[in-house]
Amino acid sequence: MHQAVNTTLTAIALFIAMLVLLEVGRRVGNKQLTRDPEGARAGTGAVEGAVFALLGLLIAFTFSGAASRFDARRDLLVQESNAIGTAYLRLDLLPADAQPAMRELFRRYLDARLDIYSKLPDVQAAYAALKTATDLQTDIWNAALADGQQTGAMPDAIKLLLPALNDMFDIASLRTMATQMHPPMVIYGLLYLMAMASALLAGYGMSGGRSRSWLHVIAFPAVMAIAVYIIIDIEYPRLGLIKVDSFDKALVDLRASMD
Questions:
Q1: How far does Cα 12 stand from its chain's mean position?
Q2: Which tens digits make up the pLDDT trace of 180-206?
Q3: 42 contacts 220 by C-beta, under 8 angstroms
Q4: How far apart are CA 7 and CA 118, in angstroms?
């Protein structure tokens, strides 16, 4: 199922669960007030404060982590564009008759790199493009070693070209790993659990009134559901509504300059 749909369903489920728990908490509170009007609220403030503080900490932790990983992925994309561009320019160090074939390999490699992320959320197609790019890395490396030793190559061709290729391949690997770096699912589980616990306690705290404050009843779970939706969407860019696709323009422009 599409990640955006999963995220939306998760947020809706959290919203509904919190609405139910707000009502459950209110009814439990009303029963407690009926049995013990004086002591029903004794000591509850400390528990509520601790739960809401932990909830706020979890939201801040997960949002900050997702935002930092989102920025890191964008930075790696720009770094990859710069690394490929540098290596491509250093192909001038190779013999003139070897350069056309190498430049064609670079164009195919960059096409494969762009395909990896344009194919998402089709994971299987993205993995196929990743394998193509990985195979081309081997072809480029072997060709650079052979061409750099031919007559007509600049004296330091291999010394300058191979490190540039190494940087290009390393950043590609870093980008691949960055797409798979996410917090453990137990963190999200704890966030959902604390959100529902806070709804239960909030409902308990709203007990005693003759009527419900629908503004608070709706606003609290809605705000929490939206916050969780944004956190998950930032954590999985390209799969939801929040994208880093605009930063692909650096690679697209680089590819256009190779023609």
A1: 21
A2: 888 888 999 999 999 999 999 888 888
A3: no
A4: 20
**In this predicted model, what pLDDT tens digit does every residue of 95-126 receive, in sequence order?**
999 999 999 999 999 999 999 988 877 788 88
Q: What is the DSSP letter of 122?
A: -
**CB count in 10 Å sphere of residue 158:** 17
Query: Which residue's structure tokens are 């599409």?
Result: 2
**What single-letter amino acid sits at 178?**
A
Helix extents (H) in 90-184: 99-118, 123-148, 157-178
What's at 205, amino acid-wise? G
Among 55-59, 127-131, 148-152, 172-176, which is the least confidently predicted range? Answer: 148-152
CA distance 173 to 125: 18
The answer to whether residues 92 and 99 touch, using CB atoms and an 8 Å cutoff, is yes
Asked if 232 and 10 count as a contact pair (C-beta separation under 8 A), the reply is yes
- The residue behind tokens 């191979």 is 162
pLDDT of residue 149: 86
Residues across the chain: 259
The residue type of 16 is I
